[in-house]
Amino acid sequence: MSSFFDAVSSQAFMQNAIVGGILASVACGVVGSYVVVKRIGYLAGGIAHSVLGGMGIAYYLGRPPIEGALVAALVFAVILGWVSLRLQQQEDTVIGALWAGGMAIGILFISKSPGYNIDLMSFLFGNILMISSDDLFWIAGLDVLILLIVFLFYKQFLAVSFDEEFARLRGIPVERFYLLFLALVALTVVILIQIVGLILVIALLTLPAAVSGLYVRSLNLMMLLATLLGVVFTTGGLAISYQPDLPPGPTIILVAGAFYLLSLVITRFWKKA
Amino acid sequence: MDSIIKIKDLHFSYDGPKILENIQIDIQRNEFIGMVGPNGSGKTTLLKIIMGVLTPDKGTIEVLGKPPFQSVKEIGYMPQLTPFSRDFPISVEEVVLMGRLGKTSSIGFFNKDDKRAAEKSMDDVEILELRKRAIGSLSGGQLQRVLIARALTCEPKIMILDEPTANVDMKIEKDIFDLLKQLNESVTIIVVTHDIGFISQYIDRVACINRTLICHPTSELTGETIENMYGTHMHMVHHHHEDEKKLS
Fold first, then answer.
1. Which residues pair with B134 in a beta bridge?
2. Cβ distance of B95 and A162 shorter than 8 Å
């Protein structure tokens, strides 16, 4: 463990990794809490995975993958939102199709990309140790945008996630806010891909909020606690992975998963006692 | 007396058989209307038309002298079933504050006026001491009161309640209707119910819906009228709870 602290104090890449984890935790605490209480983890998973299509195209065109990810995430968020509003009967099938279709597009473009074949694994599983200071500015900027929108429309988001029918009767344009919310999910997904890659995004998006929801009974506190837990999971995962040289992304997810299972057991036991 | 809801020759269908046919009703300020009818008779559809969620195929409807979509913010609505999850992390006060949407500023948090209005309506329905409680920890009767308070927080001119006492026992049902009667001094109330025998002492008129609508003054209610509107044989069971009648 002491070698981990040495690395953090001396190595820029470790400092970037820690700061990246903290910045990502803000978005995943706030947006993840809405995803959990609104129970749209599957929809968020669809957005996360289909993003590979955009990353592949961007890579093919020689652009930074994060630009492709951003565009694809927003486009798929709107498409998936529209599907879930209009085609409620077949919602899960259509999400599944877009999920897989997006990934397939990405893999085709990556395989046809000229030049040295890039490491597909780093798209899929991310690498928090490779985060550059540019990435940190991106993540911080997206954080600010997400927080700004959530503060401005706090009431509407609360109403739409709690009771859509009532929100509609109070004159809230429910569908517009639903799509705006999915756009926030898309932005968050793009941030989290930098940390854990797109396969594992959905775990980092939902687990801190799910753990936090077991302990607190208000949405604001849930967001705050989820953010803190996000910091604990990313930093903890990094620390554990450092010495045995494990990939940090999966380690972070396993730390989060273990915390969640433990919390489930504890809160069950607590309620019974 | 002035008319609050005016419906004339209204027809409605969802791409199929008529759900509502030739509906006429004129509801006056501070009336207390009981709406009854079998399941699938079009009660909820009519409420949705009054709140501007659905548009009639034919006929006219005016609510507070305006088309329904313009006046819906003046209506306090309490749904039949709670469409939200009981484990949503939200307090009583936050739920009640949602009634302020559409009245308060569209950006930022709820302000002092909103908090005051929420406090007043929680006080009116006697749940002020529950304000910090999570909704998941409430009893059925307490939750019904929270939903009434939410409907009240927009300072409505009309309240529409869809089976407000569906899941509570007789004692709470009576408490809730006593409360509504009190509110009725300043608010026009429409309440959907199956329990017409019980509420006849509270309401002014009964609107019987079964595709068409027939209104009866409460004094005309007999076993026969109720039988006609449900279209099947019913028993009036008389038993005494401080002179109430209950239909079972």
1. B91
2. yes
Question: Which CATH number describes the domain made up of A2-272?
Answer: 1.10.3470.10
For chain B positions 133-192, those within 8 Å of chain A (CB to CB) are 134, 136, 150, 154
Who contacts A205 (Cβ-Cβ below 8 Å, separation ≥6)?
A: A28, A31, A32, A35, A41, A44, A48, A185, A188, A189, A192
**Interface contact B99-A158, CB threshold 8 A:** no
Structure tokens that stand for A44 in this block? 């968020």
pLDDT tens digits, one per residue of A67-92: 899 999 999 999 988 888 887 778 88
**CATH code, domain with B61:** 3.40.50.300
User: Do B108 and A151 count as a contact with CB atoms less than 8 A apart?
Assistant: yes
Question: Is the CB of B102 less than 8 angstroms away from the CB of A218?
Answer: no
Asked if A13 is an interface residue toward chain B (Cβ–Cβ < 8 A), one would say no
Cα-atom radius of gyration of chain A, to the nearest Å?
Answer: 19
User: In this predicted model, what pLDDT tens digit does every residue of B72-119 receive, in sequence order?
Assistant: 889 999 987 777 888 899 999 999 999 999 888 888 889 999 999 999
Q: Considering only the beta carbons, identify the residue of B88, B110, B154 that sits closest to A162.
A: B88
Asked whether A215 and A267 are in contact (CB, 8 A), the reply is yes
Cβ separation A162–B84 shorter than 8 A: yes
Domains held by chain B: number: 1
CB A238 within 8 A of CB A245: no
- Best of B106, B135, B154 to disrupt the A interface (most A CBs within 10 Å) is B106
Domain ranges within chain A, ordered by starting residue: 2-272
pLDDT for A113: 83
Give the predicted TM-score (pTM) of the model: 0.85
Closest chain A residue to B108, measured at CA: A152
The pLDDT tens digits for B149-199 are: 999 998 899 999 988 887 777 888 888 888 899 989 989 999 998 777 777
| Under 8 Å between Cβ of B159 and B78 | yes
Q: How far is A209 from chain B (nearest CA, A)?
A: 11
Residue numbers of the domain that contains B75: 3-247
3-state SS assignment for residue B24? strand
ipTM rounded to 2 decimals: 0.85
Q: How many CB atoms lie within 10 A of CB A134?
A: 10
Inter-chain contacts counted by CB atoms under 8 A, chains A and B? 77
